[in-house]
């Protein structure tokens, strides 16, 4: 082989390497997106049916007898086909509207989950006789599928047909609000101090290393920390939104500190020097110039931290928030649960009717996270400055 | 920024002051994940129909529940702990040491543990010995315990099909696993000379028994795809998935409610909860909650809990149970000894 041929084959080899590398990178991307698309399609296909809920039209009788034995309020053949979530509330309904007593009213009532599963063409445990009744009702147009508003306005339930995400969503709001309240001011102050004021000595360097470490430790450890400090030591009520907010604030803190420091350090020194040159004190430099200029970066980090806190369940398991809590919290010390915890509880129940609800819950959670992340991107693109 | 600071301080102060004295109007329950669906069903009914706040129920596992329960009689501790096995005497002692002297034990019904498989297969009858030999880490061969060599069911017993052994089951943290080890493995091995007539409960770790996580739905999904495999989980999951799975007969008995409640189906266990008597007068609605739980409407033969997979107690046992609760008959160590 001549020198020239050697050189050519070497070039060819380099080109080949490049092509292989490209193919591998592209296939990695394709693989990742394929997984994502598969997941999204699968979830949406399972979940969209939960947007509709079967209802049955029937007459409801309000009398002394039906208040005592509420399942008798509907015609006998239907009493296992309508949801207990409706009939058990009849005594209270009469209490609120006494004029109903002694009347028979035509109503659309939520059907039992088995009926709903049958109407949606899914596996169910209905008996042949019951199926006959349902088919007959269908011919009489006494069965309809209505938009499932209950999913967004009700709390968790053991009756799948009336289970919703409302209380978990409110719980998430409470927890996230408290997380922000505790982590944002402390996080930003810490970052400003470390970046702008602190002397560079071994002590601040130890703190720095520790903060970076904290950002990387598994979230469940924060749960154990929260249990030990907030619940066992300070006596914060178990399962409360406050306990959750404080614990997640601990978890979010390092993320906020790190991203704030990055945002602060990206402000060029010329700004600092300029401000100092016209006589600004260090405090004024930070307050008037550095902080406003780094705000977009801080906000981005903050949103990403919050998005992470929103999807977190592991630390909340330890402090008792993975529980059956169907009522929305009214104060920060009330017991609360959060969206991902709700999804997890549904996914582990035996009733098949929860499958579609789990999927719809995931869709809701994903959309919220997507919105948060989109907000982070928009803020960054809109306000980011190139120096 | 200033506002945020003020808010933080205010919230901090509030946090320190609000829960100094915290009398409770909401029941707190912890414990077994097997009992959890039943307890939360009753809790929901209780909240919806009586106007009391809905009890909070945490699914901590039986052991975790007993641990929280036995912390003392302080109102920060749970009022009830659910358990998919009986309280251990060690747990009872811990309660006594912590001042929880008065406990009432309640049995709510049964739960069968099914050995299930894809329903495209013909019915199969397994003895508890077959199952033990399929999952044990060591089995007796020629009078000696050797690492489990069985890879196929027909190697254990020639009447069984020629199918590779692959079993998805609960992980060590699960109460179902405890019950399976006790009711299947220990019950068999203590009568087998090959194990020296001693209880043996080590499960093989060579990949043929797959601990599939606490979520039984995962096992169900595996079995729906993998037609050869078996799965071990609670009966309610089998019932709910009867369109795609079926349960193996164990010692010739099918896992059906009647046979589980009569005790003929050998792999069944009682489900319990324990009430802290000291809390009865201090927590609003606690007595009414237990009353509702024990009512015929809930745990009766046609009770609401049956529709979500609980296997009811026989009628006379339900009456005896209610009588014990009415008297607030306390649990003693002697009760737990046998």
Please give the order of strands in the largest beta sheet of chain A.
Answer: 2-1-3
- How many distinct folded domains of chain B? 2
Question: Helical amount among residues of chain A, as a percent range?
Answer: 55-70%
* Category from helices, strands and their pairing of chain B: alpha/beta
Share of helical residues of chain B: 25-40%
Task: Please summarize what this structure is.
The complex is a heterodimer of chains A (387) and B (338). Chain A is mostly helical and 387 residues long.
Structure description:
- The complex is a heterodimer of chains A (387) and B (338).
- With 387 residues, chain A is mostly helical.
- Chain A has two domains: 57-146, no CATH class; 166-383, Orthogonal Bundle (MetI-like fold), CATH 1.10.3720.10.
- Chain A contains 16 helices and four strands.
- Chain A has helices at residues 3-47, 64-68, 84-87, 90-96, 113-119, 128-139, 150-153, 166-197, 202-216, 219-233, 241-265, 269-277, 282-310, 314-318, 339-347, 354-383, and strands at residues 52-61, 104-110, 143-147, 323-324.
- In chain A, strands 2-1-3 form a three-stranded antiparallel β-sheet.
- With 338 residues, chain B is an alpha/beta fold.
- Chain B folds into two domains: 22-110 and 269-337, 3-Layer(aba) Sandwich (D-Maltodextrin-Binding Protein, domain 2); 112-268, Periplasmic binding protein-like II (D-Maltodextrin-Binding Protein, domain 2), CATH 3.40.190.10.
- In chain B, helix 7 (175-189) links the parallel strand 8 (167-169) and strand 9.
- In chain B, helix 5 (128-135) packs across helix 7 (175-189).
- Chain B starts with a helix and ends with a helix.
- At the A-B interface, helix 8 and strand 4 of A face helix 1, helix 2, strand 2 and helix 9 of B.
């Amino acid at each position: 082989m001549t020198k020239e041929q050697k050189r050519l084959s070497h070039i060819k080899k380099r080109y080949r390497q490049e092509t292989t590398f490209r193919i591998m990178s592209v296939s990695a991307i394709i693989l990742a997106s394929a997984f994502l698309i598969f997941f999204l399609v699968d979830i949406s296909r399972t979940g969209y049916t939960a947007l509709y809920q079967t209802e049955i039209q029937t007459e409801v009788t309000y009398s002394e007898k039906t208040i005592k034995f509420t399942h008798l309020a509907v015609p006998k053949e239907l009493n296992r086909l309508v949801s207990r979530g409706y009939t058990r509330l009849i005594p209270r309904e009469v209490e609120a509207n006494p004029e109903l007593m002694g009347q028979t009213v035509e109503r659309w009532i939520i059907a039992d989950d088995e009926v709903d599963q049958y109407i949606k063409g899914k596996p169910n445990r209905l008996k042949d006789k019951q199926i006959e009744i349902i088919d007959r009702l269908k011919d009489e147009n006494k069965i309809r599928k209505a938009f499932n508003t209950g999913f967004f306005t009700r709390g968790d339930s053991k009756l799948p047909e009336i289970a919703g995400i409302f209380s978990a969503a409110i719980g998430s709001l409470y927890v996230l609000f408290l997380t922000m309240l505790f982590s944002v001011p402390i996080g930003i102050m810490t970052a400003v101090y470390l970046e702008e004021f602190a002397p560079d000595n071994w002590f601040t360097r130890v703190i720095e290393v520790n903060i970076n470490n904290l950002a990387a430790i598994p979230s469940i450890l924060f749960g154990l920390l929260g249990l030990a400090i907030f619940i066992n030591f300070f006596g914060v009520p178990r399962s409360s939104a406050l306990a959750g907010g404080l614990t997640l604030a601990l978890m979010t803190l390092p993320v906020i500190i790190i991203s704030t420091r990055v945002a602060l350090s990206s402000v060029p020194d010329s700004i600092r020097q300029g401000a100092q040159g016209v006589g600004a004190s260090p405090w004024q430099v930070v307050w008037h110039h550095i902080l406003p200029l780094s705000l977009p970066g801080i906000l981005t980090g903050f949103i990403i931290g919050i998005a992470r806190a929103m999807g977190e369940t592991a630390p909340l398991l330890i402090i008792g928030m993975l529980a059956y809590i169907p009522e929305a919290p009214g104060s920060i010390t009330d017991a609360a649960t959060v969206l991902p915890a709700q999804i997890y509880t549904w996914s582990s129940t035996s009733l098949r009717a929860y499958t579609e609800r789990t999927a719809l819950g995931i869709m809701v959670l994903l959309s919220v996270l997507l919105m948060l992340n989109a907000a982070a991107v928009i803020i960054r693109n809109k306000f980011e400055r190139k120096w | 920024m200033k506002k945020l600071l003020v808010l933080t301080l205010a919230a901090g102060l509030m946090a320190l002051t609000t829960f100094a004295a915290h009398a409770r109007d909401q029941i707190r329950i912890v414990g077994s994940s097997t009992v959890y669906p039943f307890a939360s069903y009753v809790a929901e009914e209780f909240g919806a129909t009586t106007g009391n706040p809905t009890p909070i129920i945490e699914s901590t596992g039986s052991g975790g529940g007993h641990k929280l329960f036995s912390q003392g009689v302080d109102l920060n501790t749970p009022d009830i702990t659910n358990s998919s096995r009986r309280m251990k005497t060690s747990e009872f002692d811990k309660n006594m040491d912590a001042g929880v002297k008065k406990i009432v034990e309640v049995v709510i019904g049964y739960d069968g543990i099914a050995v299930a498989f894809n329903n495209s297969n013909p019915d199969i009858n397994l003895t508890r010995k077959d199952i033990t030999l399929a999952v044990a880490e060591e089995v007796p061969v020629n009078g000696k315990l050797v690492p489990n060599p069985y890879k196929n069911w027909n190697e254990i017993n020639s009447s069984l099909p020629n199918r590779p052994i692959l079993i998805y089951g609960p992980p060590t943290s699960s109460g179902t696993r405890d019950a399976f080890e006790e009711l299947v493995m220990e019950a068999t091995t203590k009568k087998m000379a090959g194990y020296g007539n001693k209880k043996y409960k080590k499960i093989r770790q060579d990949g043929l028994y797959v601990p599939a996580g606490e979520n039984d739905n995962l096992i169900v999904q595996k079995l729906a795809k993998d037609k050869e495999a078996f799965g071990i989980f609670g009966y309610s999951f089998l019932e709910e998935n009867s369109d795609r799975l079926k349960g193996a007969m164990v010692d010739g008995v099918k896992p059906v409610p009647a046979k589980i409640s009569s005790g003929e189906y050998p792999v069944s266990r009682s489900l319990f909860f324990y009430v802290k008597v000291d809390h009865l007068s201090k927590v609003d609605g606690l007595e009414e909650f237990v009353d509702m739980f024990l009512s015929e409407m809930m745990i009766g033969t046609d009770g609401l809990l049956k529709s979500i997979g609980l296997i009811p107690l026989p009628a006379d046992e339900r009456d005896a149970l209610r009588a014990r609760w009415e008297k607030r008959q306390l649990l003693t160590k002697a009760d737990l000894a046998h």
